[in-house]
Amino acid sequence: MWWWILAPAANCPTRVNFSVITLPSVNFAALNFEAYYGSRCGFGNKKSSKTGYLNHDIGIGLLSPVSSLARLCIACDRINFFSNVLSLILGITAITTMTELQIHRNYGPLAAGNKLSQFHEVPSTHSTASTVSISQVPKAEDVASILLNTSQPKDGELQQLFAENIAAKLWRVAQRDLKDNDPPTAYPEIVPQEGSQQGRYELREASFWTCGFFPGSLYTLLERETRYPGSQGYPLPRKTLLALCRAWAEPLHAMATRTDTHDIGFIVEPALRLDWELTGNRRSLQSIVTAAYSLATRYVAPSGAIRSWDLIRKKDVSIISMEENNIVIIDSLCNLDLLFYASAYTKDTTLATIARTHAHTMLTSHLRLESGIAASITGYSGPIYSTCHVANIDPKTGAIKQRLTAQGYATDSTWARGQAWAILGYAQTYMWTKERIFLDAACGLTEYFLRRLGPGYNVPPWDFDAPVENPEKPVFDSSASSIAANGMMILSEALVADGQLAIAENFRIAAIDVVKGLLRGALAEEKARFVVDGSQKGSENDTLEIEDVLAGSTFDGILKNGTANNNVGANRRYANHGLVYGDYYLLQFGNRLLRMGLI
Ligand SMILES: *[C@@H]1O[C@H](CO)[C@@H](O)[C@H](O)[C@H]1NC(C)=O
Ligand SMILES: *[C@@H]1O[C@H](CO)[C@@H](O)[C@H](O)[C@H]1NC(C)=O
Ligand SMILES: *[C@@H]1O[C@H](CO)[C@@H](O)[C@H](O)[C@H]1NC(C)=O
C-alpha cells in the first residue's frame, strides 16, 4: 500500500485538507477516513473540540466496494507545521492499524457538523458579466399588454389547487393549533370524516413520522407567494406566513440528530429544504445535513440497505432481533432524496453511495415483475412492476429472508401508497443518479399503478388487491394518487431530457388526470375562506381570520378519503379520513405545475 499526499487545500484558520489516496491492493473494501485535529475552525462541532484531536469524531465510513478512495482531512485552527505533521502521523498510524481490523461504519450525526464546511458560499464580488444596458425602455402605454394575460382560459379543475380555500384551511390550522402548542409538541395527522372530532385535525405526538408534512405544506404556500406571486389570486401576508412556517418547523431542527427513525427525510425535508432555499437560512441546511448523517447511521453495509424499522410488533407478526433482521419498507425510497441532497452540498459521496446502494437493493427485494397483458397506457413498453411493502433482509449476508406487509392487505397484494412511494422514490433517485435502471423501474411502476387505477383515474383503493369488506363504505387512499402524481411529473421531465417526447407527454397528461380524478373524487366539499376586507388584504403582518364558506360546515383537510393504515393486524386501524401527507403532496403537485409553466 502506498500513499499520495496532496498539498493542503487551504491555509489555516480555514480547514486544511490533505488528501491521502490509497491505491490498489487494499484488502478491505474501502474506507473514508477523516481525522479532525482541533475542530475549532470552520464548522467544527463543539463536542469534538472538547475531547481533543483524533477523538470519536474520526469517522470511518464504509464506502461502496467500488471505491478505494480514502481521505484524510486535517482541520486546524492555526498554522502549525508540527501539529499538522503530528496529525498526519497519527492519521496514517490509525489508517494502517485499521487495515488489520474489521472496519465498521462509524457515521454519527455529530460528524455532520464538519461536513458542511466543504460547501462554500462564494459571494460573487467580481462578476465577469458585462453591464446590461437597457436601451429600449417600454413606453408606459405598452406595459399593460406585457402584464399577465388574465383572460387566458385557465384549467378550471386545476385552479382548485390554488383556490383561496387551500390557503385558508392551512392558515386556520396553523394559527389555531399553535395556541397552547408553541413550540409544537403535537402535529396534525388525520381529519376524521365522522365521530366527535369530525372535520377537525387530530394532532399527534411530535415524534411521529408525519410531523414534517404540515410545516411542509405551509412552506409550499410560502413558495407560491415568493416565487409565483399572484398564483393564488390573492396576496398572503408573507411576514406572518413565514412566522407561522418557522414556528411549526422549529422542533424539526432538534430532530435532525435522531437515529431511531429512517423517516428523518420525511421529517426534515418538506419544511427545512424550502426554508433554506427560499430564505437562505443556513441553520436549516445544517439540519438537513445532520439528518442525512443520522440516516446514514442506519445503513447496514452487508445487506446493502438502510434499516427502516428496528422491529415489527403487531398483532400477527413479531420480528424483534436487529442482529438477525434488517426490516426495509417501500416508503424508505422517499427518504433517499435527503441523502442525495446532503451529499451534493457536503461533497461526501458516501451519503449518495448509501442511497444508491439502497435503491439498487430494493429493486430485488421489493419490486415484483408483472406480466403485462393489458395494453400500455403511457406508451411505455418496458417491464412493469408491482411492489410488496416490507422485506426482511439478512443483515449479515443480504439474503432476502422474508417478504410481508405491514400496512397493505397481504404479502402479495399491492398496497396503493406503497406503489406510489416507489414511483416517487425511484423518479427522484433517477434524477440524482441518472442511472437508467431507476428510470425504467419508475416507469414500470407507474404503468402498473395506472393500469390498476383503471380508466377515469378515480380515487385509488387503499390496496389494489384487497377485497371490499363493506360495499357501503369502500376504503380508499387518496394520498396514493397525490404521491404518485408527483413521481409521474418528475418522470415526464426525465423523459423529455431523455428524448422520449411522446411518452413524456403521456406521463404528464396521466399525472394531471390522476390529480383531476382526485379533485373530483376526494376534494372536501366543505370550503373555507379568509375574512378580510379589501384594505387589509395583503398588509404585511395581519393575523388573518378564517371562516367556513357554509357556516358550520368544517373540514380541516383539503382531501378526504385517505387511509393511514387499514391492515387487519394493525395496532391502530384507521381509514377514510383526511391525511396530512395526502394534502402536502397535492400542494406540491400544484407547485410543480407552476414551476413547469403548466398553469
Ligand atoms: C389574451 O388571451 C386571450 C385568450 O387566449 C387572447 O384572445 C388575447 O388575444 C390575449 N391578449 C393578449 C394581449 O395577448
Ligand atoms: C370520500 O368520502 C366521502 C365522505 O365520506 C364520500 O361521500 C365519498 O363517496 C368518498 N369518495 C369516494 C371516491 O369514495
Ligand atoms: C407589524 O409588525 C411591525 C413590526 O414587527 C409592528 O411594528 C406593527 O405594529 C405590526 N402591525 C400590526 C398591524 O400588527
Automatic annotation (TrEMBL):
Keywords: Hydrolase, Signal. Transmembrane segments: none annotated. GO terms for molecular function: chondroitin hydrolase activity. The keyword Hydrolase applies. One of its GO terms (biological process) is polysaccharide catabolic process. Residues 1-18 form the signal peptide. PANTHER family: HYDROLASE, PUTATIVE (AFU_ORTHOLOGUE AFUA_7G05090)-RELATED. Belongs to the glycosyl hydrolase 88 family. This is Glucuronyl hydrolase. It comes from Pseudogymnoascus verrucosus. The lineage of its organism: Eukaryota, Fungi, Dikarya, Ascomycota, Pezizomycotina.
